[in-house]
């Protein structure tokens, strides 16, 4: 059975924690995936492969998290340059720029 945040007894973190929590979780998952793939490629399905993967992950995460903290703002800026920003719902973009919506004025 799935439980949702509203069903649990813990308090959510404040919104300001998102800028730390996002790269923390992202780097945790990605460093684990990369450590697993690299270790499997290096050693194959050895009897002690899980220990080797966890050791590689333990070494890679302390590098991955600070790297994500440094790189994520740069990535957000680059994405902002490549992706259109959503329009506000109140006034259409044509109206703001004097386009067809405001042609009758």
How would you characterize this protein structure?
By secondary structure, this protein is an all-alpha fold. It has a domain at 19-71. It is built from three helices and no strands. The chain has helices at residues 18-43, 49-82, 93-96. Helix 1 crosses helix 2 (49-82). The chain starts with 17 loop residues before the first helix and ends in a 9-residue tail after the last helix. The mean pLDDT is 86.
Outline of the structure:
This protein is mainly α and 105 residues long. It has helices spanning 18-43, 49-82, 93-96.
Q: Oligomer, anyone?
A: single chain
Q: Count every helix, treating DSSP H or I runs of 4 or more residues as helices.
A: 3
Order of helices and strands: HHH
How far apart, in Å, are the first and last alpha carbons?
Answer: 59 Å
Largest sheet: none
Low-pLDDT stretches are none
Structural topology:
Elements: H1 18-43, H2 49-82, H3 93-96
Helix pairs in contact: 1-2
